[in-house]
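Dear Dr. K.,

Following up on our conversation at the group meeting, I've run the structure prediction for RNA methyltransferase from Desulfotalea psychrophila. I'm pasting the input sequence below exactly as I used it, so you can double-check it against your construct before we proceed with anything downstream. Let me know if the numbering doesn't match what you have in your notebook.
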Amino acid sequence: MNSSISGLDIVLVHHPVVNATGEIIGSAVTNLDIHDIARAGRTYGVDNYYIVTPYEDQQMLVTEILDHWITGHGASRNPARKEALELVQLADSLDTVIKLITKKRNQVPQLIGTSAKVQEKTLSYSDVRAKINEKEAILLIFGTAHGLAPQVMEMTNYCLPPVGANTGYNHLSVRSAVSIILDRLLSA
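The predicted C-alpha coordinates came back this morning:
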Protein backbone atom coordinates (compact mmCIF):
# COMPACT_ATOMS: atom_id res chain seq x y z
CA MET A 1 0.00 0.00 0.00
CA ASN A 2 1.80 3.11 -1.22
CA SER A 3 0.20 6.45 -0.56
CA SER A 4 2.54 8.61 -2.57
CA ILE A 5 1.43 12.18 -2.89
CA SER A 6 4.61 13.60 -4.34
CA GLY A 7 5.75 11.37 -7.17
CA LEU A 8 9.26 11.93 -5.77
CA ASP A 9 11.73 9.05 -5.51
CA ILE A 10 14.73 9.05 -3.19
CA VAL A 11 17.87 6.93 -3.16
CA LEU A 12 20.53 6.30 -0.54
CA VAL A 13 23.81 5.43 -2.27
CA HIS A 14 26.33 3.23 -0.47
CA HIS A 15 28.65 2.91 -3.47
CA PRO A 16 30.28 4.91 -4.94
CA VAL A 17 30.80 7.30 -2.02
CA VAL A 18 33.92 8.88 -0.55
CA ASN A 19 35.68 8.51 2.78
CA ALA A 20 37.22 11.30 4.87
CA THR A 21 40.30 11.44 2.62
CA GLY A 22 38.30 11.48 -0.63
CA GLU A 23 38.94 7.86 -1.64
CA ILE A 24 36.05 6.12 -3.40
CA ILE A 25 34.61 3.44 -1.15
CA GLY A 26 31.50 1.42 -0.43
CA SER A 27 29.85 1.98 2.93
CA ALA A 28 27.84 -0.41 5.08
CA VAL A 29 24.06 -0.34 5.12
CA THR A 30 22.67 0.48 8.56
CA ASN A 31 19.43 -0.72 10.07
CA LEU A 32 18.66 2.82 11.28
CA ASP A 33 18.98 4.29 7.78
CA ILE A 34 16.63 1.68 6.36
CA HIS A 35 13.94 2.27 8.99
CA ASP A 36 14.22 5.99 9.61
CA ILE A 37 14.47 7.10 5.99
CA ALA A 38 11.56 4.82 5.04
CA ARG A 39 9.48 6.33 7.85
CA ALA A 40 10.35 9.87 6.73
CA GLY A 41 9.59 8.93 3.14
CA ARG A 42 6.20 7.49 4.05
CA THR A 43 5.38 10.51 6.23
CA TYR A 44 6.06 12.93 3.38
CA GLY A 45 4.52 10.85 0.57
CA VAL A 46 7.67 9.71 -1.24
CA ASP A 47 6.95 7.20 -4.01
CA ASN A 48 9.92 4.86 -3.51
CA TYR A 49 13.03 4.77 -1.36
CA TYR A 50 15.86 2.95 -3.11
CA ILE A 51 18.92 1.59 -1.35
CA VAL A 52 21.96 1.12 -3.60
CA THR A 53 24.68 -1.35 -2.69
CA PRO A 54 26.55 -3.70 -4.99
CA TYR A 55 27.66 -5.93 -2.11
CA GLU A 56 25.85 -9.26 -1.75
CA ASP A 57 26.23 -9.43 2.03
CA GLN A 58 24.70 -5.96 2.38
CA GLN A 59 21.89 -6.87 -0.02
CA MET A 60 21.18 -9.97 2.08
CA LEU A 61 21.05 -7.84 5.23
CA VAL A 62 18.56 -5.41 3.67
CA THR A 63 16.46 -8.30 2.38
CA GLU A 64 16.36 -9.98 5.80
CA ILE A 65 15.34 -6.76 7.52
CA LEU A 66 12.63 -6.03 4.95
CA ASP A 67 11.33 -9.61 5.05
CA HIS A 68 10.98 -9.46 8.83
CA TRP A 69 9.03 -6.20 8.80
CA ILE A 70 6.98 -6.67 5.62
CA THR A 71 6.05 -10.36 5.60
CA GLY A 72 7.47 -11.76 8.85
CA HIS A 73 6.64 -11.40 12.52
CA GLY A 74 7.36 -7.67 12.49
CA ALA A 75 4.54 -7.03 10.01
CA SER A 76 1.86 -8.05 12.50
CA ARG A 77 3.64 -6.49 15.49
CA ASN A 78 4.08 -3.07 13.87
CA PRO A 79 1.83 -2.40 10.85
CA ALA A 80 2.99 1.23 10.63
CA ARG A 81 6.61 0.10 10.23
CA LYS A 82 5.50 -2.39 7.57
CA GLU A 83 3.74 0.37 5.67
CA ALA A 84 6.87 2.55 5.69
CA LEU A 85 9.25 -0.25 4.71
CA GLU A 86 7.07 -1.17 1.73
CA LEU A 87 8.57 1.93 0.07
CA VAL A 88 12.04 0.36 0.06
CA GLN A 89 13.53 -1.16 -3.07
CA LEU A 90 17.01 -2.60 -3.26
CA ALA A 91 19.28 -1.99 -6.26
CA ASP A 92 22.86 -2.85 -7.13
CA SER A 93 23.66 0.52 -8.75
CA LEU A 94 22.37 4.02 -9.32
CA ASP A 95 22.08 3.20 -13.04
CA THR A 96 19.65 0.40 -12.16
CA VAL A 97 17.53 2.83 -10.12
CA ILE A 98 17.45 5.32 -12.99
CA LYS A 99 16.31 2.57 -15.38
CA LEU A 100 13.56 1.45 -12.96
CA ILE A 101 12.24 4.98 -12.56
CA THR A 102 12.45 5.69 -16.30
CA LYS A 103 10.37 2.58 -16.98
CA LYS A 104 7.87 3.41 -14.21
CA ARG A 105 7.41 7.06 -15.22
CA ASN A 106 8.06 6.81 -18.98
CA GLN A 107 10.70 9.51 -18.65
CA VAL A 108 14.25 9.78 -17.39
CA PRO A 109 14.20 11.37 -13.94
CA GLN A 110 16.00 14.60 -13.20
CA LEU A 111 18.82 13.72 -10.82
CA ILE A 112 19.02 16.07 -7.84
CA GLY A 113 22.09 15.55 -5.70
CA THR A 114 22.63 16.46 -2.07
CA SER A 115 25.84 17.42 -0.33
CA ALA A 116 27.09 19.03 2.86
CA LYS A 117 29.15 21.31 0.59
CA VAL A 118 27.93 23.95 -1.84
CA GLN A 119 27.96 22.60 -5.39
CA GLU A 120 28.24 24.46 -8.71
CA LYS A 121 24.88 23.56 -10.19
CA THR A 122 22.77 24.37 -7.13
CA LEU A 123 19.02 24.75 -7.49
CA SER A 124 16.96 26.29 -4.68
CA TYR A 125 14.50 24.30 -2.61
CA SER A 126 11.64 26.39 -4.01
CA ASP A 127 12.70 25.59 -7.60
CA VAL A 128 12.88 21.85 -6.86
CA ARG A 129 9.53 22.07 -5.05
CA ALA A 130 8.04 23.62 -8.21
CA LYS A 131 9.41 20.73 -10.30
CA ILE A 132 7.80 18.26 -7.87
CA ASN A 133 4.49 20.14 -8.04
CA GLU A 134 4.66 19.99 -11.84
CA LYS A 135 4.97 16.18 -11.50
CA GLU A 136 8.40 16.02 -13.14
CA ALA A 137 10.18 12.72 -12.58
CA ILE A 138 12.76 13.49 -9.91
CA LEU A 139 15.24 11.28 -8.11
CA LEU A 140 16.70 12.86 -5.00
CA ILE A 141 20.14 11.34 -4.36
CA PHE A 142 21.65 11.01 -0.88
CA GLY A 143 25.08 9.62 -0.07
CA THR A 144 26.54 7.80 2.89
CA ALA A 145 30.05 7.97 4.41
CA HIS A 146 31.48 11.42 3.52
CA GLY A 147 29.22 11.98 0.55
CA LEU A 148 28.57 11.03 -3.02
CA ALA A 149 31.54 10.20 -5.23
CA PRO A 150 32.50 12.77 -7.89
CA GLN A 151 31.18 10.55 -10.70
CA VAL A 152 27.73 10.59 -9.09
CA MET A 153 27.81 14.35 -8.62
CA GLU A 154 28.75 14.70 -12.30
CA MET A 155 25.63 12.72 -13.26
CA THR A 156 23.28 15.10 -11.45
CA ASN A 157 21.25 17.73 -13.22
CA TYR A 158 21.24 19.91 -10.09
CA CYS A 159 22.13 19.85 -6.41
CA LEU A 160 20.23 21.19 -3.45
CA PRO A 161 21.88 23.69 -1.12
CA PRO A 162 23.47 22.12 1.97
CA VAL A 163 21.34 21.71 5.08
CA GLY A 164 22.61 23.48 8.17
CA ALA A 165 23.28 26.76 9.87
CA ASN A 166 26.33 28.95 9.60
CA THR A 167 28.05 27.32 12.57
CA GLY A 168 31.01 25.88 10.67
CA TYR A 169 29.87 22.38 11.67
CA ASN A 170 27.95 20.35 9.09
CA HIS A 171 28.03 16.65 9.89
CA LEU A 172 24.37 15.64 10.11
CA SER A 173 23.45 12.01 9.87
CA VAL A 174 21.97 11.19 6.49
CA ARG A 175 18.72 10.31 8.32
CA SER A 176 18.48 13.82 9.70
CA ALA A 177 19.36 15.44 6.38
CA VAL A 178 16.74 13.38 4.52
CA SER A 179 14.04 14.40 7.00
CA ILE A 180 14.93 18.09 6.84
CA ILE A 181 15.11 18.09 3.03
CA LEU A 182 11.82 16.23 2.62
CA ASP A 183 10.17 18.70 4.97
CA ARG A 184 11.54 21.64 2.97
CA LEU A 185 10.39 20.14 -0.33
CA LEU A 186 7.08 18.50 0.56
CA SER A 187 5.51 20.38 3.49
CA ALA A 188 2.29 22.17 2.76
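Two things stood out to me. The domain at 8-54+87-186 is CATH 3.40.1280.10 (Alpha/beta knot). The first strand starts at residue 8 and ends at 13.

Best regards,
J.T.
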